[in-house]
Each structure stands twice: as C-alpha cells, then as structure tokens.
Amino acid sequence: MPLIIKTYTGCRSCPKKQIKTLPMETLKTILLIFEYILFVYLLFATVYIFVYSVAGLFYKQKQKADVAKQRKFAVLIPGYKEDAVIVDVARKATQQDYPKDKFEVIVIADSFQKETLDALRKLPIRVVEVVFEVSKKSKALNKCMEVIGDDYDVAFVLDADNIMEKDVLKKINAAFDRGFDAVQGHRTAKNLNADFAILDALSEEINNHIFRKGHRVLGISSALIGSGMGLDYALFKRTMATVDSVGEDKEVELK
C-alpha cells in the first residue's frame, strides 16, 4: 500500500496538495539491498582477517648462513621536538653489531632545543637540522636525503622514540641479500607498565601477525609501519620525492 503524506501551504484558501512517495515495498527492497551490501563487506573483512590470522601461524623466519655483501646503511631518525628521548635513541643506534664504516646514524632535527643539539653533536652521528612552516615526516626525510647524498645502499627509518636491538642492521642486510628491496622490522613494546601501553603492544603484535607474517606466508608483501623499516636507498629516495603527506609509509607501500 503506498504511503501518502499530506502537506498544506500557509494559505487557508489554497487547495490542499498531496505528495506521493515511494511505495513501502520499494523502500523495503532498497533497505534489503543495503543490508546485503553491508553483509558482503563485513563477510569479506572477516574472512580476510581470518585467513591471514591462520596463515601467520605457519610463518618461519628464513636464515641465510653466508652474506654476499655488507651494505651501507643510512639510519634516518626524524624527530619533531623529541628532546626528551632523542639523545638516548641516537646513542643506542650507534651500538649496532655491524661494521662501523657500513652505517651512519643521521638525526633529522626539527625544532630541537639548543642543549639537545649540542648533546647530539657530541655523539658519533650526523645531525641535519630542518625548519618548515608545516612540519611533516616526509618533508624531513626528503630534505635529509637531499643533504646527505647518495652514498648508501639502504635507508633504515627509525622513529625518534624507537630503540634498536644490536643485530637489527645485520638481519636487515641478510634479508636484502635474499633479494628483497624493502624489509619491515618487528616492533615490540619497551614498557608494559600502563593499561594503554599494554593495549598498544597487543595491537602491534596482532597487526604484525596478520599483516606481516600472514602476508608473507601467502606470498604477499608485508605491510609497512613507517618505522623500523629498511628500503633500497635509491628506490626510497626516488619514491619519497613524490610524497608529501602524513601517511608516507602507506604511499611508499602502494608505489
């Protein structure tokens, strides 16, 4: 039965008008179609997560005994007002179990205090100061690579609050020796002394299991996080030159 809505104008002497709307059966059909579309979308998302969750259980890290080449790394640490943590992060980044002449730690300092810059310059690292009207990680990385040149094989990007294990560069180099051009490291939480920190750690591990381990088992590239990742230097520099957004890791991943 059609649904009829009566409306009236502000004039009493004017004739009454009737506006016919869609029949109720048509509205029900439209609603049913929308429900089917929503169901298919949710089903796809559920199956996607389930398949990669199961696949992640079968992931095994491949080890290569002999490494043909020790690549030179540019360890890029962009930071914006990270005065509280950057000195300790930079110091520990220099303690890699990797030939000292094969990696250089480079802090990209955006809006750091003078005391912080002085402390950084006492370390065996390189400091590149940058200033932008609107600060972005992509801008900082692009400016840094413009300054430091091209004498590197791998760009290893590290957030200003990330601590590296001493064998990270050795493992990244081994992965490159197997033919990869981009390698995502496994990030873990340093402190679990707060509820939010625990939730963040759980989220990190879930994402690592599904979107990295699960992807690799089924032959798909791991998702990039934006830090703890090593990429072919020339490829990274060329790709980043076209990136000017906050989610630079996703743009690099898509390209």
Describe the 3D structure:
The chain is α/β, with parallel strands linked by helices. The protein has 2 domains: 56 residues; 182 residues, Spore Coat Polysaccharide Biosynthesis Protein SpsA, Chain A (Alpha-Beta Complex). 43% of the residues lie in helices and 16% in strands. It has 8 helices and 8 strands. α3 links the parallel β4 and β5. α1 packs across α6. It is globular and about 75 Å long.
What distinguishing features does this structure have?
alpha/beta; 8 strands; 255 residues; Spore Coat Polysaccharide Biosynthesis Protein SpsA, Chain A; 8 helices; six-stranded mixed sheet; globular; two-stranded antiparallel sheet
Topology of helices and strands:
Layout: E1 4-7, E2 17-20, H1 24-56, E3 73-80, H2 86-93, E4 103-110, H3 114-121, E5 126-130, H4 137-148, E6 154-157, H5 168-177, E7 182-184, H6 195-217, E8 229-232, H7 233-240, H8 248-254
Parallel strand pairs: 3-4, 3-6, 4-5
Antiparallel strand pairs: 1-2, 6-8, 7-8
Helix pairs in contact: 1-6
List the quaternary state of the chains: single chain
Report how far apart the termini are.
54 Å
Sheet-strand content, in percent, reads 15-25%
Shape category = globular
Order of helices and strands: EEHEHEHEHEHEHEHH
By CATH reckoning, the class of the largest domain would read: Alpha Beta
| Mean pLDDT reading | 87
Q: What is the structural class?
A: alpha/beta
Strand order of the largest sheet: 5-4-3-6-8-7
Low-confidence stretches: 1-8
CATH architecture term of the largest domain:
Alpha-Beta Complex
Largest sheet: 6 strands, mixed
Say how many strands there are.
Answer: 8
